[in-house]
Amino acid sequence: MAISKLTFLLFPSLLPGFFCATASPFSFPPSPRASTDHVTTSYPNRTIAGVTVIDTPVVRAAEARAREHASDFVYNHVMRGWLFGVLLWNHHLQLQIQERSNGHPNATTTPTADATEMGTHLDLEVHAVAALLHDLGWDRTPDSPIVSPDRRFEVDGAVASRDFLSEHRHRHAELAGERGRSVWDRRRTQLVWDAIALHTTASISRYKEAEVRVVGQGIMMDFQGPQLGVTEAEYAAVVARFPQTGLRSGVNETAVWLCASKPETTYDTFMQPFGENYVANYSAKGHRVFDTITGLPN
Ligand SMILES: *[C@@H]1O[C@H](CO)[C@@H](O)[C@H](O)[C@H]1NC(C)=O
Ligand SMILES: *[C@@H]1O[C@H](CO)[C@@H](O)[C@H](O)[C@H]1NC(C)=O
Ligand SMILES: *[C@@H]1O[C@H](CO)[C@@H](O)[C@H](O)[C@H]1NC(C)=O
Ligand SMILES: *[C@@H]1O[C@H](CO)[C@@H](O)[C@H](O)[C@H]1NC(C)=O
Fold first, then answer.
1. How high is the pLDDT of residue 119?
2. Domain limits of the chain?
């Protein structure tokens, strides 16, 4: 299958008419065309730390939204997570293409059976928006409109991102008429929601759609170092542009803050040990599924 045929499937917002019909506060290149080359697709792009990323109004707006609600360490983390995801996807895609042109999979260079199942379809806009907005639930500005008293932070981020897309869709629909309504359809919006809600649950997200999976894997790579084909040099270039300064202390403090301020959202999640180790009087006991089950009468 020629990968170029997938271009408009991959980037629904690049459908003809989208660009000429909108007035955007952001600058972007002219309407893209599907490449006739068998390997590459073409999309409006810019290069950050050596990584070519999709450059559309909604991606720019998501970046601005992330910046607005993030401390420096969080902003750098989401930018790295986005870029690492793009890099691992590019490596994955290269491998797929290589295998196709060889006519047989090269067993020694195929990372895992799971990776092969990811296919060749990634909606780069969905990936970008979800990666950029995945930590909105870490907004520590006073009276944040994003942070709820009763939902885990992943869900706060997912809900805020759905609201962001809804705003974007309405603004776009006003400018572009009916055409705008289908750009962020239910499926793409759901993928963003799922990718953010599941980004800390790799044991589930790695079996979901490529967008959900790549968002999670790109973010995890910020903690685990280069992997999944991403080279040391590529990784280092991203880190040089968005330094990891304060990553450990920042994540730790954020987790401690969440365990102290809304402990019931942290039980049975990866947050729980932060509460158990660092928050006075924190106790998950009695709140875990374990407690519910072992407390059954028979
Ligand atoms: C990036 O944009 C340029 C110019 O707009 C285009 O020629 C190129 O094919 C694009 N690259 C990708 C990977 O889409
Ligand atoms: C297949 O794997 C072998 C062993 O690692 C390697 O030498 C060879 O270059 C690979 N072929 C391709 C097309 O990647
Ligand atoms: C995490 O934060 C707590 C509370 O501020 C602190 O006591 C602990 O040393 C920190 N742990 C790490 C690994 O930074
Ligand atoms: C912890 O709980 C005890 C007993 O309820 C209470 O006296 C103490 O003030 C609490 N400490 C903190 C830091 O909340």
1. 76
2. 3-245
